[in-house]
Amino acid sequence: xxxxxxIAIVAxxxxxxxxxxxxxxxxxxxxxxxxxxxxLELGGDWDGSPQKAVYTVLSRIREACLSGxxxxxxxxxxxxxxxxxxxxxxxxxxxTDHPNTxxxxxxxxxxxxxxxxxxxxxxxxHVLCNSWRWGDDPxxxxxxxxxxxxxxxxxxxxxxxxxxWEENPPFPHDSAFAGAIRQYHANLLAGYRKAAEIxxxxxxxxxxxxxxxxxxxxxxxxxxxxLAELEKDxxxxxxxxxxNRWPERSGVPIAEYLQRWQESCKxxxxxxxxxxxxRALFDLA
Length: 285
Fold this sequence. Notes:
The protein is α/β, with parallel strands linked by helices.
């Protein structure tokens, strides 16, 4: 089962009001800091990991991923709920109750901070891409691109986290753990760089990303390309907030998906650099 397709109806939790800094966009007020500052609550069984420490790591990776980024989406949640489950893949738990809560499920062992940061960063990317509410089901033929974008977003966050951890460790005398984060990041990146050793436009033209049986597959070849763009310019990260703001979401061909993304960027005053750059990289201009 894909990490982002598990859909269930879940029990309700009390919603805590979000701290929102409002600015004006083309369509009216938008939240400038919502996803970075909304309350974050924990649930599930954390398998011996102290919840205070879990909260500390989640807060640090959220800051690493989003600090310095304008959060321009008009569909941001009012709360993040993060649960640890002992089995099954990480995913966004789509639910009908408490519609303003984005619910993230991870699967980690005791004090496995690298894995926690990586899994949470990926799912936080889906929230940033407006894929967290009931009805936000992943759809072929273009869900693979969202998966690639959020994977790159998570890997970018790990690199920032390593620097932050070394300079200002969240736990006493723990700056050396930055080395473990860097190694985790390097292992991920090596695999995606290997996957990118293809003629990507040719790969795209063959229709290989357009599997009807798996909405997210394959995602590998595009991740390193997208990561380079996210690392080059924070504006490309800001563009993620404009993704999937149309009814069909990823259920349109890739060229149309990118076109809709560019139009959505204009609607919320996002830079529009990432979809424009990807059109060129994919030879769809």
